[in-house]
């Protein structure tokens, strides 16, 4: 099979031919049709993979090619996706509580096992999500990470329909977060840099727009009654903390992006209103499946740029440059 791998930590992507992998018990072989490029795909090259060479990619969409012994829930020909969640151990305390995304073993597609920059990928049966007919493979792929992260972050936030929910950032995650928030029935606020982005934000479904370069973000949120939730999709710690003053009583800043610098939050700013700052992981395979269903039903779609697998390095560079609008997807013929 054709594959794009990172041969060793610190090295660049390279195209190789590999044998189609064997399918162990409890696993599924997926023929890849599309694989999204995520900013987290820098991690294997940074030495964070469990072993090398490693095939990156954790936004996979394709069809079941074959199943290993003991697999009953998946059949050849089914359309499926594989995301960041690479399976659970089922024995740690988190798994026993049903919190599979917090599994202590930490199986991650493209880091602890080979990912989707290839014609085939093997994944544990519990890591698969069914893809509905209403989505193409190229549309489904980014929803397996960027999609489930924003969708699940919102539905687990405690916000209810009608509440003011702000999405900080209009990039790869944010443009999906705004769509999900609006379709979930929240009074949706988009926060981004520059007045020129307002038209786009409103096209995505935002009811309000705040230009962080010209407006007092916290004051603008407070004028709307305060945000029950701010979904922070950017990687700017200062921009995140600038929203805290605009939280409603018992409001929550939900952090999805990972800034280089630490968050700096004065305790007095959150004690009086009983507000919270919380991180949020992406979600399990079932969460991804729920994301795909909701997107298909409500018309949420990622904006994508497609590259053939052979040009994975170009697509990777495009995504990492921040110039992609808004997700890069590798397609496999």
UniProtKB/TrEMBL annotation:
Coiled-coil ranges per UniProt: none
Catalytic activity as recorded in UniProt: a secondary alcohol + NAD(+) = a ketone + NADH + H(+); a primary alcohol + NAD(+) = an aldehyde + NADH + H(+)
Cofactor: Zn(2+)
One of the Pfam families matching this protein, by short name: ADH_N
GO molecular function: alcohol dehydrogenase (NAD+) activity; zinc ion binding
Annotated GO CC locations: cytoplasm
Keyword list, A-Z: Metal-binding, NAD, Oxidoreductase, Zinc
Source superkingdom: Bacteria
Enzyme Commission no: 1.1.1.1
Residue span(s) of domain Enoyl reductase (ER): 10-330
Sequence similarity: Belongs to the zinc-containing alcohol dehydrogenase family.
Protein name, as recorded: Alcohol dehydrogenase
Species this chain originates from: Sinomonas atrocyanea
Lineage: Bacteria, Bacillati, Actinomycetota, Actinomycetes, Micrococcales
